Amino acid sequence: DAGVIQSPRHEVTEMGQEVTLRCKPISGHDYLFWYRQTMMRGLELLIYFNNNVPIDDSGMPEDRFSAKMPNASFSTLKIQPSEPRDSAVYFCASSSTGTGVPYEQYFGPGTRLTVT
Amino acid sequence: AQSVSQHNHHVILSEAASLELGCNYSYGGTVNLFWYVQYPGQHLQLLLKYFSGDPLVKGIKGFEAEFIKSKFSFNLRKPSVQWSDTAEYFCAVRGSGGYQKVTFGTGTKLQVIP
After folding, report:
1. Residue in B96, B110, B1 with CA at minimum distance from that of residue B47
2. Buried/exposed A83-114: b ≥16 CB within 10 Å, e otherwise
3. Which of A111, B32, B58, B69 has the greatest number of beta carbons closer than 10 A?
4. Which pLDDT tens digit goes with each residue over A30-82?
């Protein structure tokens, strides 16, 4: 398996623009997580899905952030409008209760977002 | 709610020195515990985990961690570090309860000097 795939790897955008981050989880995994990593706040869980259904979005910072998982192989995290304080590395991770190490999360390479 | 504390934010060691990174968690019930490593410019990878049984768990690359329930701790150790161990290390906890949510600590940056 290719692992968790995220795109783009780097995104530079201007304040006020819409940003969409994409994630393809490992095939067969039924959980998907979105994290944000910054120097100041460390690694924060934004939202996670189980079988494409959002379970906990309490970490989503504000209404400008939204996440969807239309099917088992694709998820998006959207920021609209973007602000400089959204600059961070955004990680997607997936896991499975069915096989392998229970609850081990496999992380993607991350998307480094810079909002100017 | 579960939480994790990593008190060492930045550790600098010389090669061959011994390593111990602290991790304390807060949760009222049974827990699953993890250590993840993030090498520079890379994503997080699982180093080791504890679910049950022997509280001393061994992971990859010579790392081990000991779960001490009475102290709510899960410290990471390595007897002799190498330059290639330079990375950021994250402790994480999951409260057993059927949910997948894992709470990560703020991370400890380890710098190993050749």
Report:
1. B110
2. eeebbbbbbbbbbbeeeeeebbbbbbbbbbbe
3. A111
4. 899 999 998 888 888 999 999 999 998 989 988 999 999 999 999 999 999 99
Q: How many CB atoms lie within 10 A of CB A30?
A: 16
The verdict on a CB contact (< 8 Å) between B46 and A101 is yes
- CB contacts, 8 Å: A47 with chain B: none
For A54, list phi and psi in degrees, rounded to 5.
-65, 130
Distance (Å, rounded) from C-alpha B109 to C-alpha B114? Answer: 16
Which residues in chain A touch residue B42, judged by CB atoms under 8 angstroms apart? 109
| Residue B15: other Cβ atoms inside 10 A | 13
Inter-residue contact A73 to A10 (CB < 8 Å):
no
Cα A12 vs. chain centroid, distance in angstroms?
17
Three-state SS at B61 = helix
Per-residue pLDDT tens digits for B28-73: 788 889 999 999 988 899 999 998 899 999 999 999 999 999 999 9
Report the candidate in B68, B77, B79, B71 with the shortest Cα–Cα distance to residue B108.
B77
Collapsed DSSP state (helix, strand, coil) of residue A57: coil
Buried b (16+ CB within 10 A) or exposed e, A34-68: bbbbeeeebbbbbbbbbeeebebeebbeeeebebe
Tell me how far apart the alpha carbons of residues A65 and A62 are, in angstroms, rounded to a whole number: 6
Establish, for the pair of chains A and B, how many residue pairs have beta carbons separated by less than 8 Å. 51
Q: Is A81 within 8 Å of A58 (Cβ atoms)?
A: no
Which uninterrupted H or E stretch holds B3?
A: strand B3-5
